From TrEMBL:
SMART domains: ZnF_C2HC (SM00343)
InterPro entries in the record: Znf_CCHC, Znf_CCHC_sf
The protein, known as: CCHC-type domain-containing protein
Top-level division of the source organism's lineage: Eukaryota
Molecular function via GO: nucleic acid binding; zinc ion binding
Region (Disordered): 84-119
Residue stretches of biased makeup (Polar residues): 84-110
Gene source species: Rotaria socialis
Boundaries of every CCHC-type domain copy: 17-31
PROSITE patterns: ZF_CCHC
Amino acid sequence: MHFIAEPANHNNKPSQCYKCFKYGHIAKYCKADSQICSKCGEANHTYDVCHNSSQHPICCNCKGQHVATSPDCPKYKEHQQKIQKTIEQYSSSTKPTNQTQPGYNWNSNEDFPILKTTD
């Protein structure tokens, strides 16, 4: 009997909170006091009701001119690289492995001796 083992598909997308838009945690565990807007970075409103909608977006993570959910954000890329480094550090192989298990003859007394019965 043999099985072909392939490496797991690793997700290197950083987890992002949709309350404060920081990386490394999710909204369920967020300690921020109020909702942050992903477009302007200000508190107490969301993207869909942003009163700064006529202005360029301001990322709350890096202060760049993009929304906080952008994969172009340097902070996003930094966290993505950390995850990729960890994956590479703890992965045993990046290539598929073809290992075979030893075959057994299920009817063989050598591989499976007859058990003695007790009276």
